[in-house]
């Protein structure tokens, strides 16, 4: 049996609209006995709500199977004074971190969503406050460094742009806590008791996720949904092991691979 890490945005759904056949594919993988973990850089909703929304879309999972970036932040920053530029809805998932407005030991940058809240969270005054804290010695962390994500309205700018701006202004490189950081993948494999060479990552992101997973020793399946772009695949330094039309087509290819009948 295989261990499978499933990305969420762009793989299971786009803007809350489930990818056709995705829920059936998850059920098929479970029925075959594969170990699943849902991994996401979504940093705009608490884990329990994310799990509930996925169940409402037809996917079967428990909150404990869902690995989020706020959880990674707590593991890294627990007990520290942190200036957090994050969506208010995920604050409960940051329990254990002391959230402060100044004299921070660390600055934490979260992700954007499709509401107007990023206008307030990433205002000039908040970004300037973060800049000042870093100048005074605070470390810089981000839940992810995504440039953009795919929505039903098209591509939308993500918070990676703000992280890059803070890095440029301060000369301090951010520590990425979510995908594709090795620590995030290591936590996912530890939760499954899995070895990298026996684990697949299914994602729509060839630039970050595929490269990070391959460097970590995992196999990768790139779906042609979500943020997939043919030109990004053609120019990728690290190609995926396989490319599938959508998650719906992954289970059959996985079974072929396990049976020794498929080769890249």
Describe the structure.
The chain is of the alpha/beta class. It folds into two domains: 3-41 and 179-258, Rossmann fold; 71-176, 3-Layer(aba) Sandwich (Rossmann fold). The chain is built from ten helices and 15 strands. It has helices at 22-31, 47-56, 69-77, 117-121, 124-135, 160-170, 182-192, 206-215, 230-234, 250-258, and strands at 3-7, 13-14, 17-18, 35-39, 66-67, 81-85, 98-99, 106-109, 139-142, 148-151, 154-157, 175-176, 199-203, 219-223, 242-244. It has a six-stranded parallel sheet with strand order 5-4-1-13-14-15. Strands 7-6-8-9-12 form a five-stranded parallel sheet. Strands 2-3 form a two-stranded antiparallel sheet. The longest helix has 12 residues, at 124-135. The model has no long low-confidence stretch (mean pLDDT 95).
């Amino acid at each position: 049996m295989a261990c499978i890490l499933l990305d969420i945005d762009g793989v299971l759904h786009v803007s809350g609209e489930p990818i056709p056949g995705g829920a059936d594919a998850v059920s098929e993988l479970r029925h075959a006995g594969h170990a699943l973990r849902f991994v996401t850089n979504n940093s705009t909703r608490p884990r329990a709500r994310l799990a509930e929304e996925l169940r409402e879309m037809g996917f079967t999972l428990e909150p404990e199977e869902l690995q989020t970036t706020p959880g990674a932040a707590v593991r890294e920053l627990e007990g520290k004074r942190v200036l957090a530029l994050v969506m208010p809805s995920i604050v409960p998932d940051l329990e254990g971190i002391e959230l402060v407005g100044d004299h921070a030991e660390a600055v934490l940058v979260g992700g954007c969503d499709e509401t107007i809240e990023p206008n307030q969270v990433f205002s000039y005054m908040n970004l300037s406050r973060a800049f000042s804290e870093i100048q005074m010695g605070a470390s810089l962390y981000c839940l992810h460094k995504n440039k953009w994500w795919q929505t039903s309205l098209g591509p939308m700018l993500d918070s990676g742009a703000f992280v890059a701006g803070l890095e440029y202004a301060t000369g301090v490189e951010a520590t990425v806590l979510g995908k594709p950081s090795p620590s995030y993948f290591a936590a996912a494999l530890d939760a499954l008791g899995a070895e990298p060479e026996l684990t697949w990552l299914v994602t729509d992101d060839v630039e970050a996720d595929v490269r990070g997973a391959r460097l970590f020793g995992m196999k990768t399946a790139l779906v042609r949904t979500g943020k997939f772009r043919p030109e990004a695949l053609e120019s990728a330094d690290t190609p995926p092991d396989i490319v599938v039309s959508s998650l719906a087509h992954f289970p059959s290819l996985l079974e072929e691979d396990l049976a020794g009948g498929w080769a890249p």
